[in-house]
Amino acid sequence: AAVPGAEVRAAPLPLAPAEGDPRWAxxxxxxxxxxxxxxxxxxWSLRAHVEGASGRPARAADVEVAxxxxxxxxxxxxxxxxxxxxxxxxxxxxxxxxxxxxxRGVLPSGENGTVWSGTVAKDGTFxxxxxxxxxxxLWAWTDDPEAGLALTILRDVLPGTTGLEIxxxxxxxxxxxxxxxxxxxxxxxxxxxxYDADGLVNSAGFDAGSGFxxxxxxxxxxxxxxxxxxxxxxxxxxxxxxxxxDLVVPGRLLPRLRGGVLLPDGRPVVAGIDVEATARxxxxxxxxxxATTTQTGADGRFVFPxxxxxxxxxxxxxxxxxxxxxxxxxxxxx
Length: 334
What we know:
By secondary structure, the chain is mainly β. It is built from no helices and 27 strands. The chain has strands at residues 7-12, 25-27, 42-51, 57-67, 78-79, 81-89, 99-104, 114-117, 125-131, 136-142, 152-157, 164-168, 175-179, 190-196, 199-206, 212-213, 223-229, 233-240, 247-250, 252-253, 258-260, 274-279, 291-295, 301-303, 311-318, 323-327, 332-333. The strands form 7 sheets. The protein has a 5-stranded antiparallel beta sheet with strand order 2-1-3-4-5, with no helix packed on it. The termini are far apart.
């Protein structure tokens, strides 16, 4: 049956619909049909949902499409289910501190931002209601640093899973600092990102003087540590073992992409046109410098903030002025 009033959101992959531009969100009409205009050619993810209790999606559907498409796209809504479970330490006891469980991800293409972050009871139990279709990622941790318990990630958790046991094992922290091309500590603080083979595991701010400290991490994996400062210095050290102390991360200044946006007759566009850069490839969306936006200046030109070492799709447009989102020909490298 047709579903009127369902919200449909879109975003270019590897972004997920929840992270897309608000302009790429519409509602279905009385006949359950929708139309999204101004989408550039390429791979897109779409999500349709209708609200349930407490404003959470009660029915949802996801699809990935390559534009342009021939014919129409059909999304079939599924009724939402729940995920329940309990967080303990390796011995089955409730860990000290405030327990946290966050669910991310509803698309086969990967994580798409936080979709649930609720209360964990004093006995360690939790209930995630109204889970849409797809495989989900659960993150669980305690905020008590003295406990030494590792942040734990469970991937591919299916809707309808009940009685899930999440056991937090003892972990190890990684500490260190970022240095410039002269081997000196960088002048500004920024953000630390820790990745394992499956993606982003931990992120936190750091000060230039004191350096960074990760959350306790599982000891059965190694991690890539990436640091980026507020003024564009960045560095990465790969395959770092938990428990590593005083890691020195050599840094470099991240490059910037720049260019201009033109009207069909070759004149520069006005100031304030949105320009977006998105890194190509799956699994890179959470990497440093993988996506950013800026706007054109009075001369129609733009400069992106510092970007990572990826190939980027660059697009620009302004539907309010009648210009469809247009992608630059071919990928460009920062």
